[in-house]
Protein: 8-oxo-dGTP diphosphatase
Organism: Streptomyces cellostaticus
Amino acid sequence: MTERIVVVGAALLDAGRLLAARRSAPPELAGRWELPGGKVETGERPEDALVRELREELGIDAEPVERVPGEWPLRSPYVLHVWTARLRPGSAAPRPLQDHDDLRWLTPDRLWEVPWLDQDVPAVRELAARLGAGAR
Ligand SMILES: Nc1nc2c([nH]c(=O)n2[C@H]2C[C@H](O)[C@@H](COP(=O)(O)OP(=O)(O)OP(=O)(O)O)O2)c(=O)[nH]1
């Protein structure tokens, strides 16, 4: 059996808004929106992977808050785990430095205004429920 690899995605929240990031690569994912993050490396704690990826991709200093219960399948062997996170005091504002070419802070009523990656929709639905947003 192929080993599964955890991808940590951040539900970065600020003033009740969720940060969505538009992928710039690879071509099959470009133009679709996702939760910023990336693969957990061998021996790395998921929270540490999240902080590392958010620093690399967005230039921010983030604090993981809690794991959102659940696990969502991505392209094999990857599975998505989601953690809520917030900006630490003094952090720079997020910028699309790597992997993304646009960012948007979405209020709960606008969560579905961006074309999420198909495989992210169940996780975003879970976040919508937690944020008290409308269903889709
Ligand atoms: N970060 C992230 N990746 C996602 C999401 N949904 C989804 O299918 N993926 C896929 C895209 C990639 O195939 C894989 C994560 O790759 P990545 O490119 O973000 O991770 P990474 O920085 O660790 O990768 P690498 O370039 O160092 O190999 O998971 C999502 O919401 N967030």
Remarks:
- Helices lie at 46-58, 121-131.
